[in-house]
Amino acid sequence: MGYHHIAPDDVAATPDRPCVQRSIGDAAGLEQMAANVYEVAPGEQIPLAYHYHDDQEEVFYVLSGTLHVETPEGTFEVGADEVFVVEPDSPQRAFNPESATEPAETFVVGAPAVDDVHPYDPDE
């Protein structure tokens, strides 16, 4: 059996990200899912690019603030204690707009934990 009690603030931030990312999955040694806490300041985004996944499903649970998620269907505003779910092959870019007055803190789970990300160009 294996158990992990983790304080997200004790997990080092992942370098070279557009916002603060703390990998709970890496800290716990998870292999089947990715689990991250993001602190997204006004003007920052979570992903490195507007993208989609072949197989990975993602769940964004907003802890505080408001997360905006750009999709080909429009931009969704996801408030605190709300959840946004992204199915495979669904382009998205999660961000906190420049005009925001507070950071957005979000817990994101993706499964399976695969590197199947592809850039998405909405103009193509």
From TrEMBL:
It comes from the Archaea. Keywords: Metal-binding. Signal peptide: none annotated. One of its GO terms (molecular function) is metal ion binding. Residues 37-109 form the Cupin type-2 domain. The keyword Transit peptide does not apply. This is Cupin domain-containing protein. It comes from Haloarcula rubra.
